Hints:
By secondary structure, the chain is of the alpha/beta class. It contains six helices and nine strands. It has helices spanning 30-45, 66-75, 83-96, 113-120, 147-155, 176-194; strands at residues 6-11, 14-19, 50-55, 59-61, 102-106, 109-111, 123-126, 131-133, 171-172. A five-stranded mixed sheet has the order 1-2-3-5-7, with helices on one face. A four-stranded mixed sheet has the order 4-6-8-9. It is globular.
Amino acid sequence: MNGAPVSVERDGAVAVVTLNRPERRNALDGKTKTALRGALEDVAADDVRAVLLTGTGGSFCAGQDLAEHAAALREDPAHAFDTVEEDYAPVIRLLATMPKPVVAAVNGTCVGAGLALALACDLRVLAEDAVFGTAFSAIGLTCDSGLSSMLTRAVGSRGPGSSSCSPSRSARSRRSLGASRGGWCRATRSRRRAGRWRPGSRPGRPPPTPRPSGSSRSRGSATSGLRCGPRPRRRRAWA
């Protein structure tokens, strides 16, 4: 593979577009974004039947090259974010409107704008070491490249973190939604044991069946201490 930031190879009827900056975890600088846009325009007009997008080394794409972005902020802060409209938006549109299926082969790190590239593809094939994240709020930014919309469609509005810009909500492979549900279940069991959970407090869940006062309960049961009615209000004794 040559030293170009993006390479295009043809394997039968499939065009393989590869991000080639392994020393920077395939971070997107100006040359890489221009080369990626040109490569996608070429394969869109080519007679291939499918496109595969991937990255070299141990990462898919680490998003924007922050060293370049910091330099742009120092030199011309008024136009430092023009890259969103000039570079990222055209690339995302090319992936999302490609007249042939686009598959993202995600290996290793896939964060920030790299996550947007993967979500703009039609399908995603994940390696065992695939790690996702957004990290925009960690550097004081909001989501761009269509990520706030695509991530919500991919995992739902109640997906991990409830915010597509949360920096600490990375998830390995398909464990993200399970972690979100598990957190709710553990908190609910704790409230049940402490007697602070009321039936019907969460919409869509039927209230538990009340037990007779004399029935036996197994030791350590998740429903021990469960109140089967509204909590009585305590009257405050005024001095």
